[in-house]
TrEMBL record:
<dbReference type="Pfam" id="PF00561">
    <property type="entry name" value="Abhydrolase_1"/>
</dbReference>
<dbReference type="GO" id="GO:0047372">
    <property type="term" value="F:monoacylglycerol lipase activity"/>
</dbReference>
<dbReference type="GO" id="GO:0016020">
    <property type="term" value="C:membrane"/>
</dbReference>
<feature type="domain" description="AB hydrolase-1">
    <location>
        <begin position="66"/>
        <end position="265"/>
    </location>
</feature>
<dbReference type="InterPro" id="IPR000073">
    <property type="entry name" value="AB_hydrolase_1"/>
</dbReference>
<dbReference type="InterPro" id="IPR029058">
    <property type="entry name" value="AB_hydrolase_fold"/>
</dbReference>
<keyword id="KW-0732">Signal</keyword>
<dbReference type="InterPro" id="IPR050266">
    <property type="entry name" value="AB_hydrolase_sf"/>
</dbReference>
<dbReference type="GO" id="GO:0046464">
    <property type="term" value="P:acylglycerol catabolic process"/>
</dbReference>
<feature type="signal peptide">
    <location>
        <begin position="1"/>
        <end position="17"/>
    </location>
</feature>
<dbReference type="InterPro" id="IPR000639">
    <property type="entry name" value="Epox_hydrolase-like"/>
</dbReference>
<keyword id="KW-0378">Hydrolase</keyword>
<protein>
    <submittedName>
        <fullName>Alpha/beta hydrolase</fullName>
    </submittedName>
</protein>
Length: 329
């Protein structure tokens, strides 16, 4: 009888158990970003795609631009406090949503590669007449930022990697998952699952609204009738991350690089697919920061003790002071 009642509730109230999650449009048309959005047309793979971005100019510009690249489970909006501080310090700030993310197009057929996303970002910079920039990437954005710096060292004045994923090659430990398997997994997502994953992997201490807003934003997509298209793009980007490591090319970086690492982070792709012993050896940022700094010729390492995967949300004062100190040197 209880099971029957639960099923009736699910059918009658689609948001049951989702804490009144708001349904989000496929390109977040009904979600307001902290700064005005513009769109750059990308012609790629026989498609016209729209790449959303924020470009915020400082009132008293120092003539330098910083480009912020978001992580896989996020979009440009989560950089708000970073943007506010950097523009106050005189930096112009460019914040794109990559194709497949945030307010940008979710293509039906697209071969994702970090090279393609880097090329799109380079063309966006050219369209805005930005000849050089500091490039900062978080999580998946760190892999993209690394690829960008490898492809366009003349454009990249400094590289900043904020708890980047891809500091190890997960293919060596994790069985291959097909895109169809990633897709099936994404179709099962809801607010509860998203919250549990982020609470376990991203943060420490009590769950709060600052954390919840980003989980709710993702969960809002799961209630959209077009969610399968979003899930498919997510599956494709999982495959990109898994099959296109940058770890073997860190020694090729020729520009000053900062590794800004929260040492409590244990994020790693595929930990749920391996034994507990193997899982425990993955995503050890307390070790990976030091190992990676040894590989990059002009690297500096700043470790944020007991901070997790999102320093700019969990520990903003500590993170921003470390970032500004490096930028001023």
């Amino acid at each position: 009888m209880k099971k029957l009642l639960f099923l009736i509730l699910l059918i009658s109230f689609p948001n049951f158990g989702q804490e009144n999650i708001e349904v989000r449009e496929i390109n977040l048309e009904n979600y307001e970003y902290p700064y005005p959005i513009d769109f750059f047309e990308v012609q790629a793979q026989q498609e016209k795609l729209s790449m959303a971005y924020m470009f915020i100019k400082a009132e008293r510009s120092n003539g330098k631009t910083i480009t912020l690249l978001h992580g896989k489970n996020f979009n440009g909006a989560y950089w708000k406090t970073t943007i506010d501080t950097l523009t106050a310090e005189g930096y112009d700030v460019l914040v794109p949503d990559q194709i497949g993310f945030g307010k940008s197009t979710k293509p039906k057929h697209f071969q994702y590669s970090f090279q393609q996303l880097a090329l799109n970002t380079k063309k966006l910079l050219e369209s805005l007449n930005i000849p050089s920039t500091v490039v900062m990437g978080h999580s998946m954005g760190g892999m993209l930022a690394t690829r960008f710096a490898l492809m366009y060292p003349e454009t990249t004045t400094k590289l900043i990697l904020l708890n980047p994923i891809g500091l190890e090659d997960w293919k060596l430990k994790v069985p291959y998952q097909s895109i169809d398997e990633w897709y099936a997994n994404e179709l099962d997502k809801n607010y509860k699952a998203i919250k549990e994953y982020q609470q376990e992997n991203y943060y420490d201490g009590d769950w709060n609204e600052e954390y919840a807003q980003w989980a709710k934003l993702l969960a809002g997509w799961t209630l959209n009738e077009n969610y399968p298209l979003i899930a498919w793009n997510t599956a494709l980007t999982y495959d990109m991350i898994f099959t296109q490591p940058v770890v073997y090319e860190f020694h090729e970086l020729v520009i000053p690089t900062l590794l800004l690492i929260g040492t409590r982070d244990r994020t790693a792709l595929g930990k749920n697919l391996v034994s507990q012993d193997v899982s425990a050896s993955m995503g050890r940022y307390d070790q990976l920061g030091k190992i990676t700094a040894e590989k990059i010729p002009a690297a500096s390492l700043l470790e944020l003790k007991d901070v997790g995967h999102l320093p700019h949300i969990e520990a903003f004062p500590l993170y921003i002071s470390s970032l500004l100190e490096y930028l001023k040197n």
